[in-house]
Amino acid sequence: MNEMKEKILSVIEKNSKISVKDLAVVLGENEDDVARAIAEMEEDETICGYHTIINWDKTNRDRVVALIEVCVTPQRSRGFDHLAERIYNFPEVDTVYLMSGSYDFCVMLEGKTLREVSRFISEKLSTLESVTSTATHFVLKKYKDHGTVMVHQNKTERQPIVP
Amino acid sequence: MRNPLSDKVIAMKPSGIRKMFDIVAEMNDPDVVSLGVGEPDFDTPWHIREEGIYSLEKGRTFYTSNAGLIDLKKEISSYTDRKCGVNYDPSSEIMVTVGGSEAIDIAMRAMINPGDEVIVPEPCYVSYQPCALLADGVVVTIPLQEKNEFKLTSEELMAAITPKTKILVLPFPNNPTGSVMTREDLEPIAKICIDNDIIVISDEIYSALTYETEHVSIASLPGMRERTVMINGFSKAFAMTGWRLGYACAPELILRQMLKIHQFAIMCAPTTSQYAAIEALRNGDDDVDMMKESYNQRRRFLVYAFREMGLHCFEPFGAFYVFPSIKGLGMSSDDFAAALLREEKVAVVPGTAFGDSGEGFLRVSYAYSLDELKTATDRIARFVARVQALRKLKK
Which ipTM was obtained for this model? Predict the structure, then answer.
């Protein structure tokens, strides 16, 4: 990957709303080159999407975030990938990681009601043949997400004019 | 009652920047966007703050030795060696001060005899002149030229030297212009200083913030180490302004006398800050790189934005300021800054706050988020367009 692409990624990782023109200016690059590089990275799925970090606690929506530790018996000749696919294809699943350590998959469900989460686990996830056990944890409070602090932070107390 | 005041202090001009501050404070308007701040917008990196907290928890609340913690002085020595290629003995050639500002003050007081001339290139940071005057020095200013990118040239320096010249203040990377001096720029200056037996106070507080070029200290040039007081600090590089911590590196002959003043006036730099600073020097390089990359992006953005407005803006390669020219608009820097604040609620500092040669320029800081810079430059562009349209009408 070339240097310009890495620089583009480091900027838009934190600020996906920046315009291509501004991006070109701050990186000291040509606007067309930047647009092309972004298109290429979208095409080859280096850039997988543009999401918004939302603090749902500030809304009226009542929702939980669940993290489920899943232990499985990997299947002969198909390993973990096939199992992961069985899990991540459920649309209610937001995140699936294969983990080292005492369990195999970390599965996250966001934005569901408690009832939806428990139904998913008891009816869909636990009933998969290879799943041997699950342990579900609910997130009580999000302090920081994707590098962004979600709890209230004080505004700057810098003096407006300083030599 | 008798006059309680010193004539010398009364004669001192109050800082030009204060005027602007007072207007902004008086407006007390939350809609004002200020690009007038000469300090980083980043918080001190957490691992450095955490080390300060830890030192308090451990009860390290005593004085340190006058010159500072030996571990800190060793780290400063290795940092200066690593970054500038100049080696100083931690036990006799380095002292920790209350910000770079204190180092400037005591360097002047340790070296100036009444009537000695101190050459100060302008525009520059606001404290050199008053500190020199308090030490009974005579200040000779050199108005630097935009056509030379606000670098000090050998011709300018030669023209300012008299038999009484003792000290040259060399403030690069420069606040307010953002100008830097390369090795090629410094070499002839160094030669003149050696030939004329001039001591250099090299204020390198912005040394970590140079873009697309490496900082060069004049102390690293042959024959200069013994005639240079190198001043630096933690404020700008590590976003530690409020910790008030700087340092001076100089030959023992000079440093020992500076230390005497420090010992009586200050005792020692804040202990908590010193412990935090050790952590900054040991493990802070990545933070500096991260902040520098951010500053560099904003720097490009501002230079571009001012040029788009049709203002002349030379490309600065250091510190976190751009210094656009408003000479084509028929307004003084003071009037421009005041009108911009009144009409568009953007605060910038008129170049004249940094010396008469700053007339026709503005100091615009990019120690702000890109969003803030965008808001501010949109407003400035609107203001500039209005001024230009009015000028056309009048013609």
Answer: 0.87
